[in-house]
From TrEMBL:
Stated role: Catalyzes the ATP-dependent ligation of glycine to the 3'-end of its cognate tRNA, via the formation of an aminoacyl-adenylate intermediate (Gly-AMP). Also produces diadenosine tetraphosphate (Ap4A), a universal pleiotropic signaling molecule needed for cell regulation pathways, by direct condensation of 2 ATPs. Thereby, may play a special role in Ap4A homeostasis.
One annotated GO molecular function: transferase activity
GO CC terms in record: mitochondrion
Reactions accelerated catalytically: 2 ATP + H(+) = P(1),P(4)-bis(5'-adenosyl) tetraphosphate + diphosphate
Location(s) in or outside the cell: Cytoplasm
First-level EC class: ligase
Matching SUPFAM superfamilies: Class II aaRS ABD-related, Class II aaRS and biotin synthetases
UniProt record, GO biological process: mitochondrial glycyl-tRNA aminoacylation
Protein name: glycine--tRNA ligase
Superkingdom: Eukaryota
Family: Belongs to the class-II aminoacyl-tRNA synthetase family.
Amino acid sequence: MATATTLKGQPLDRAALESMLRRRMFYTPSFEIYGGVSGLYDYGPPGCALQANIIDLWRKHFILEEDMLEVDCSVLTPHEVLKTSGHVDKFADWMCKDPKNGEILRADHFVEDVLETRLKGDKEARGLKVEEKEEDPKKKKKKSKGGEAVKLDDVVVKEYEEILAQIDNYNGEQLGELIKKYDMRNPTTGVQPSPPVAFNLMFQTSIGPSSNLPGYLRPETAQGQFLNFAKLLEFNTGQMPFASASIGKSYRNEISPRAGLLRVREFLMAEIEHFVDPEGHKKHHRFHEVEDIELAFLDRHTQLSGSTTVKKQTIGQAVKDGLVDNETLGYFLARIHLFLLKIGIDQTKIRFRQHMGNEMAHYACDCWDAELFTSAGWVECVGCADRSAYDLSVHAKKTGAPLVVRQRLDEPKIIEEWEVEIEKKKFGPFYKKDGKTIENAILATSQEERGKLAKELEENGKVVIDVPGVADGKVEVSKDLLAIKWIKRTENIREYTPNVIEPSFGIGRILYSLMEHNYWTRASEGGDEARGVLSFPPAVAPTKCLIVPLSSNKDFTPAIRTLSQKLRSAGVSSRIDDSSASIGKRYSRNDELGTPFGVTIDFQTLKDGTVTLRERDSTRQVRAEQDKIIDAIKALIDGSKTWQDIESELPKFESQEVEVVVR
Ligand SMILES: Nc1ncnc2c1ncn2[C@@H]1O[C@H](COP(=O)(O)OP(=O)(O)OP(=O)(O)O)[C@@H](O)[C@H]1O
C-alpha cells in the first residue's frame, strides 16, 4: 500500500493534521467534558460551513442538474418497515470477543490488522521499506504485542495478501476459520478471540409512551424514499425514469468505531434512488455526455485473484465490455467522479471498487464503491448499488400498496396467465385479522407458483400458502375461498416494478478525505514551525474571505464595516481578524482554516479606497478599488476566473508578508 501524502507530495502527518483540525474546531469529540463517546463527533463552525458547502454543491450537481425529487423522511422507523426491508435480519457485522479482557473486536478488521502487522514484520525482517498505514492516533497509545520483525514463508505471504485483497468477501464462519487456521491472537492479550457472531448495527428504540411500537433509528435514508414511491411517481406525472434524493442523518451502532470521522455512529448521508424501467438494459439518455470520462476500476475478479491493481478505462468502454453492468449505473459512477473532483478531491486518490459476491448488501445485485485514498488506506466514501426491484417488491408484498409503474401500451397485448380470485365475502370473516396479510401473500405469488397452486387446488380442494408472520408461516386455504384460473385478456397497460440504482454518499467520510487531500505545510524562510494550509477550492472553503486591517487602529473601523457589508451583500462569507497579531500570523491562521482570499485594509485604503487581495496558496497579492476586488472574489468563487486571470487584470502588490516555501 502507498503512503498517504499531502497535496504537495509531503508524507502526511495525520496526528499533526488532526490536531490542527481540532484546534481550529473543524470537529471535536461529542460530550468531551464527560469523557466522550467513541464514534460521536460535533462539528464546529468551519466544519459546519464546509459540510454546508459540500451539500450545497451536491444539491446543485445532482438534484438541480437531474431534476431529482428531494424528500426529507423520518429518522424513527417502525420495526415492521425494517423487518420487511431485511435490515432486522441481515444488517449486521461480524463481532468476536476476547475471552480474557472482554474486548469486542470487529472480526474482519481484526483479521485485517493481524495479517497487515505480520506482513509488516516480514518486510522488516527482509530489510524492505515498510509503507505505513497510519493508525488512529488514539490507538497508538495502546501497548500491543506482535509486529516483530519475523520472516514469513513466501507461500504464507501470498496467502495473506490474497486474504487481504478480498477481506470484505468473508462471512462470519469463514472469518472464524481464518482466525483459527492462522492462529490469530488479540495483540493486547495474546489470546485468540471467540468465533464471530452477527451483531445487528441498528439502534433500537420504542415509539410512543406505551412502548408497544418497536422501532429503530434509520441506518440509511433509502427506505423513506421507497415508501413514498407511488406519491413521487404521481408528483412526477407518472413519467419514468426519475430519481428521488434525500439528505439526512443515519445511525449505525458500529462495533469498533475508529479512524476519527471515517467510522462514526451518527453520520450525514446524501442518497439518490434512481427508478428505472428494467426492460431495455437500463439505458440512460445522458450517458453520451459522460462516456469519455476515464475512471480507475478495481473489479471483483482482480480482487479475487489477490491483486489490487486498478484498470483505467473510459466509462463508455467499461459498459460496452460488461465490466459495469448498465448505462445508468455507469452514468452515476461518472457523475460521482465529477462531483468528487468538483469539491476538490485528488483525482489520483479515487478508485471504483466492485463488491464481491459475499460483500454485497442483501438488497444489491451489483455494487461499486467510490473509494478515496487516505492515511487509513482506501476508504469507501460513496456506494453505488443496483438494488434491482428488491425494496419496492418486498414493501409492496407486505403492504399490498401498488409500488409499480402503469404504462399505457402503444399496441394492445394479448395476455394468457393464471389469475387469482378471492372470495372476499367469506375470506375476510374466515381469517379475521390475518385476512389482509394472507390475501397479499396470495396476490404476490408468481405465475409459476400459481400454476402449481391451481393444480393442487383441483386435486386436493385446498392449498398451503407461505405467509411469514402468520401462524407457523403456513396457511391452508380451501377452494371455496380461492380460485386460480387460466385466463386470456387484452392488456392496454403494462405494469412493472422499477429497478433502483442507488448512489449513497457518506458526507463525513468525503469531508475528512477532502481535508486530507487539500492539506499541506509550508515553513517560513526563517525556519519557524511548519504551518498548515488547507487548499480547499473556493466554492467549498468554509469562509471565503478574511478581512485584515493593518493594525487595530480605530481609523480602520469604518472601512472594515463598509467592506464587510459589501461582501455580505455580494453573498461572500467573510471574517474580520483585527487582533494584534502580525498580518503574516493572521493570514497563516486562516490558511489553516482554508480561507482562500484575504483583503488587507491599510492607510492607502483610507486615502483612495483601494485594498489588497491575497491568494492563499501562492500568497501573491493584487491591489485595486474595493468594488473591483469584490467582483474578482465573486468570479474566483464561481469559477468564472482563475487567480492568473485576476493577476493579469489587476495591478500586482508586493507583499510585506514573509516569503514562504514548501518544506
Ligand atoms: N460508520 C460510518 N461512518 C461514516 N460514514 C459511513 C459509515 N457507514 C457508512 N458510511 C457512509 O455511508 C455510505 C453508504 O453506506 P453503505 O451501507 O454502503 O456503507 P458500508 O458498506 O456499510 O460501509 P462500511 O463497509 O465501511 O461499513 C458509505 O459509502 C459511507 O460513506
